[in-house]
Amino acid sequence: MSYLAFISHCAEDTWVARQLSHECSKVGAQTFLDEAQIAVGANFEHDIITALQKANELVVLITPWALDRPYVWLEIGAAWIRGIPIIAILLGVSISQFQEKANVPVALKQRNLLPLNNVDRYINELSARVNRNEGVV
What we know:
The protein is α/β, with parallel strands linked by helices. The chain has one domain: Rossmann fold. The chain is about 50% helix and about 15% strand. The chain contains 7 helices and 5 strands. The chain has a 5-stranded parallel beta sheet, sandwiched between helices. Strand 3 (about 55-60), helix 4 (about 70-80) and strand 4 (about 85-90) form a beta-alpha-beta unit.
């Protein structure tokens, strides 16, 4: 079974999310990116829920715009309830700015947050998880 990384982002960050998806794919992870996987006219919410139920981890791109998007928060909540890893990658928001925000749940503030400039660390760790999932040591 392939390793699925669900990439949560807002519409303004689609280009960055695509680049992140590409990097994840290069290490063998399958990715779910709504704009790439949901067909025009499809049941958007059903497809999102189905992908979240199958995902091994959630990668959420946290930007000033994403903080105001209900779907981003719903996707984070779904991953939290499922107990899958939540990887928060910050762009345009510093770690301290993010942690100081009043509306950010404590469960997310306590995560090891990652600035986009350090995304290589995440990709390396993802590669190891993909290999473990496939039985490669």
